[in-house]
Design a protein that fits this description.
2 domains; mainly beta; Jelly Rolls; hydrolase activity; GH43_C2; Glyco_hydro_beta-prop_sf; hydrolase; about 575 residues; glycosidase
């Protein structure tokens, strides 16, 4: 029986994991162990999602480590800044998450938050001194001491991009680093850049330092070193790197693997979680860096990843977690970890509850611009002045794209007062790379600003598109693409002739590989307004570290307006 990778599809990079042994029940039996995992989120809020699993394969989000605006200031963070790689650990009943906040005009650097319940609430941050990124906390049970490691640029470096892993003792009671600093590692290979993502472990009589190098793109690789004492000196594994896919070429199904963390099960098995990307339709990893799971064995005192296989792709036999868990081995679980197979998420906003589902994010701040109560059974979005092109918080709520083939429908009720009032859906990678399909009010000219209108793409089963320029001043739908600093209207259609002159509109995205068809649903079916190449939203094309988020979007395009957009439902359907 096997599972299918990735175990967390969509943008879930830099995974870190810990195990909490199961408690002994009143009847003397022992509950299954709990595993917790956290990933990076950069400029998105809430940040650092926390996931739970009993079997290492099926994961359920339980909260976020950053969930209050007063914890961190992301308001000035550009895309791919913000909350970098975090580490999660558990010790004596407390969970610890340490991360780095970068590229903010507010307080930044390394920060530590704690909780007794991984679902939260999490504490206000303790800010820790020290340079660089990718901090990790290590509890040395053999001595009772606690240590912090992180990565920074070497000064002086032997080559551009050389980094070093440093170590200092952490006094948890004082909330400060104490004692001397120790430089542990500058990378396994001469000339390799960005030895990062360090984690320390004690296995047997040795301390092990796991780190990745080569940059978090195609050249990514995992290396390991060991020492007799925590402060070193560390000696590299002669087999370094112990895992990489760079030699397999850009056509391999999974590329850029790295940034790994290790965990041991109650049965004595070792596993690693790590990031990787799945390009499709060319070297276009739209889904971002995802979380994968692979087995580890120890040979001659060194870890070996994916023994007998040597790479991470497809699946592996199910982990032995030391307990018979309900559902493990059933057809519903084997080969179908959460989110990998066909998935339908249909959200109808049918009550205020305690807020939105944990899968939703907004950009940069946690201030709730949206409402679930102003119009019952709807998500109300104001048409904020901010747009997706601004380093600000636009009225955009997104969830990760997790499938190459998927459909997104946003049913929106909006009566725009003019051509600068937009409401519909958006696919966001950054300020410089996004696509939107929006309901607006037609102006007196066919194409505002002389923007070009490219031909409509053919979509199976779609209604033929209208001719650009048939503008009557009624509502219309625009498809707009931004890439490379240019914002272009790539398609438009009047809604009146489609039977949508007033009332709610189903704005639709059909993604089939890199063909992103956007339009509206009518009584005759899907009406394609434009088709764009989704690969332009991938990090090799757009830059940065992120895959895409998609969801409802509304804007006044620089103008404050009283117009609101009411979203009746959102459906994400992974195929």
């Amino acid at each position: 029986m096997t599972f299918t990778n990735p175990v967390l599809p969509g943008t879930h990079p830099d995974p870190s994991i810990c195990r909490v042994p199961g408690a002994t029940r009143a009847d003397g039996t022992v509950a299954p162990d709990d595993y917790y995992l956290v990933t990076s989120t950069f400029e998105y809020f809430p940040g650092l999602p926390v996931f739970h699993s009993h079997d290492l394969v099926t994961w359920t989000q339980v909260g976020h480590a950053i969930h209050r605006t007063e914890q961190v200031d992301l308001s000035t963070v550009p895309s791919s800044g913000g909350l970098y790689a975090a580490t999660i650990r558990h010790h004596d009943g407390t969970f610890y998450v340490v991360t780095t906040l970068v590229h903010t005009q507010g307080q930044g650097g390394h920060l530590l938050v704690t909780a007794t319940d991984p679902a939260g609430p999490w504490s206000d941050p303790v800010w820790l001194e020290g340079d660089g990124i990718d901090p990790s906390v290590f509890f040395d049970d053999s001595t009772g001491r606690v240590w912090l490691t992180a990565t920074r640029l070497a000064d002086p470096g032997e080559w551009e991009g050389q980094t070093e892993v440093w170590l200092r003792e952490l006094d948890l009671a004082a909330g400060a680093l104490v004692g001397p600093e120790h430089v542990l590692w500058r990378g396994a290979l001469h000339g390799a850049v960005w030895a990062e993502g360090p984690h320390l472990y004690r296995v047997g009589d040795h301390y092990y330092l796991l780190a990745s190098e080569g940059g978090t793109e195609h050249q990514h690789a995992v290396s390991v070193a060991r020492a007799d004492t925590v402060t070193g000196p560390y000696t590299g594994n002669p087999a370094n790197p112990i895992l990489t896919h760079r030699h397999l070429g850009r056509d391999f199904p999974v590329v850029g693997v790295g940034h790994a963390d290790l965990v041991e099960t109650a049965a004595g098995e070792w596993w690693t979680v790590l990031l990787g990307s799945r390009p499709y339709g060319g070297y276009f990893p739209n889904l971002g860096r995802e979380t994968f799971l692979a087995p580890v064995v120890w040979e001659d005192g060194w870890p070996v990843v994916a023994p007998g296989v040597g790479h991470v792709a497809g699946g592996f036999p199910l982990p032995d977690v030391g307990a018979r868990l309900p559902g493990v081995g059933s057809p519903a679980v084997v080969g179908q970890p959460a989110g990998v197979g066909a998935v339908v998420v249909h959200e109808t906003f049918d009550g205020p509850g305690e807020g939105l589902d944990l899968a939703w994010n907004q950009v940069r701040t946690g201030d709730p611009f949206w409402s679930l109560t102003e119009r019952p059974w709807h998500l109300r979005l104001p048409l904020l002045p901010a747009t997706l092109s601004d380093v600000a918080t636009p009225a955009f709520l997104g969830r990760r794209q997790q499938h190459a083939d998927m459909d997104l429908t946003v049913r929106v009720d909006v009566d725009p007062a003019g051509p600068d009032e937009w409401a519909g859906l958006a696919v966001r990678q950054s300020e410089e790379a996004w696509i939107a399909a929006v309901v607006t009010r037609a102006a007196s000219v066919a194409v505002p600003g002389g923007a070009t209108v490219r031909p409509l793409g053919a979509v199976p089963g779609s209604v033929p598109g209208t001719v650009p320029g048939s503008v009557t001043g009624g509502r219309e739908v625009l498809v707009v693409e931004r890439f490379g600093g240019e914002e272009v209207v790539v398609g438009r259609a009047a809604l009146g002739p489609l039977g949508l002159a007033e009332g709610p509109v189903d704005v639709v995205l059909h993604a089939t590989g890199q063909e992103y068809a956007l339009g509206v649903r009518t009584l005759r079916g899907f009406h394609a307004v434009a088709t764009v190449h989704g690969g332009r939203l991938s990090s090799p094309e757009a830059g940065g570290f992120l895959g895409v988020w998609l969801g409802p979007y509304a804007t006044g395009r620089g103008t404050t307006t009283a117009t609101v957009a009411d979203v009746e439902c959102v459906e994400y359907r992974g195929r």
